[in-house]
Amino acid sequence: MTETIVHAELRLRRAEPADVDFLAALASDEEIEPFVAAISPRTHDQLLPEVQRSLAEPEAFGRLVVEVSDGGLWRLAGALAYEAFNRRSRIVSVHAVMIAPAFRGRGLAEQATRLATRYLIRERGYHRVQLEVYGFNERAQRVFERAGFMREGVRRRAYWRHGEWQDGVLFGLLEEELDDGDTEPGTPAGRKESEGHA
User: What's the number of CA atoms in the CB half-sphere (13 Å) around residue 83?
Assistant: First the structure.
């Protein structure tokens, strides 16, 4: 059994060892890889320990897969990750939000980010969810703003990527800013279940 967060036609499920090949293919996809942090794991051997850690330490670390409903079955469509940044102050960082190219244009990144944020605050007790993206990743910046995150600043020329220095754009969302509205698509509301991988 695995922890699962469900909302309508979308769900987040804690990754299992059987998902590692999908995660590796996703992180290495030519349309995704240029936007992933240079230090992010991309291979099966790098990702398997992270999946195992996610299963062993769910309160502090997570590798989640994004799935969409298709004719009664759940199809792998993307992934995201989180890690405790400061346990005393209840801060968690979200990273590696990836949607497979075949599933783009459906708002899945925004919906998955909202579901994960609500889960981290309401179920895991975090006070602040934060993330950072490259300055050139304008699409991701728009996704996180639509998901309710506040743009908080820029780390100027902080990362060496693609042969030049890149900015890092910082985003944050606080517990009191979480929109717990209804369960319409595009809101962070959802339900947590325990169920097997379909």
Answer: 8
198 versus 162: the higher-pLDDT residue is 162
Give every CB contact of residue 198 below 8 A, 6+ residues apart in sequence.
Answer: 73, 74
Which among 122, 184, 171 is positioned nearest to 144, based on CA atoms?
171
- CA–CA dist 104, 92 (Å, integer): 26
Structure tokens given for 65: 């897969």
CB 196 within 8 A of CB 9: no
Contacting residues for 68 by C-beta, under 8 A, at least 6 apart:
9, 10, 74, 75, 77, 103, 106, 108
Residue 194 vs residues 65, 115, 121: alpha-carbon distances, Å:
15, 16, 19
pTM exceeding 0.85? yes
Share of residues in the chain with pLDDT > 70 (%): 90
